[in-house]
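>> Question from a student workshop board

For tomorrow's exercise we were told to take the sequence and the ligand below, predict the bound structure, and bring the output to class. My setup keeps failing. Could a helper post the expected result so I can at least see what it should look like? The ligand is NAP.
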Amino acid sequence: MSDELTPVPPATTVLISGASRGLGLAVVTDLIERGVRVAAFARTVTPELDNLAARFPDHAHFGPVDITDAAASQAFVKEVEARFGVVDALVNNAAVGQDSLHVHTRVDRIEQIIETNLTAPLVLTRFWLRRLLGKGRRGRLVNVTSICGQRGYPGLVAYSATKGGLDAATRSLARELSGRVLANAVAPGFFASEMSAVLGQTQLDAILRRTPSGRLTTPEEVVPVIRMLLLDDTNINGQSIVIDGAGSI
Ligand SMILES: NC(=O)c1ccc[n+]([C@@H]2O[C@H](COP(=O)([O-])OP(=O)(O)OC[C@H]3O[C@@H](n4cnc5c(N)ncnc54)[C@H](OP(=O)(O)O)[C@@H]3O)[C@@H](O)[C@H]2O)c1
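>> Workshop helper replied:
Here is what the output should look like for this input. Compare the format with yours to find the bug.
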């Protein structure tokens, strides 16, 4: 049987962007507690990450990197490889939010949202894939997108464009990679974090009214789906898995 016809093995070394807080930190914590080697970055290394590094010195590699600085993120990948060997999974989680009507959003802010949430993850993914495939290895890719990539929300025009773009890239990557890398996205509904703290009570009430369970998703409900896509034997590929309590149905 050719290698492509066998399941892609579970990830052993996972690189996660945007891990200083929120969902990224929850994913790092979950994986490292399960014995996975985890490399992660954000612009700031928070006390929470320092604490994890102290608890799991052999499994953690964290550093301060701005994902829009391609040279810095690529140097970080090489640093991780020197320590842990090949990085066989990437979680593109780092992103910036938006809370402004399109007509009121400055052009440089639109550019920054697109650079951080779409261009930089694609550039990092390209770099990671070249090194992974160049070594003849297979792997897993998880892009953290959003329900905003599939449904409309006022105040989130540029942000939604980046998330829809990443969902589309995920599908084309799955085709292009011919089963050597399982490429999927998770698309959460709104959950409490620094990013969503800008939502007002009126917006939250509207989301809750539209959600059958009457409650928001939590990061703890997103983490197991990301873990499954990274570690389980699965043939899920090219999908954007919505986790929003059916709020968008
Ligand atoms: N919260 C929601 O309601 C919601 C819903 C659907 C999808 N999502 C998605 O879920 C993911 C996590 O969001 P979250 O709510 O956990 O947000 P968050 O708490 O604001 O965390 C965002 C993370 O990205 C990092 N980051 C931002 N800009 C960066 C840059 N230029 N370079 C490197 N790291 C950067 C931040 O760290 P630094 O600031 O230290 O760099 C932080 O670790 C994002 O992709 C978001 O779009 C969120």
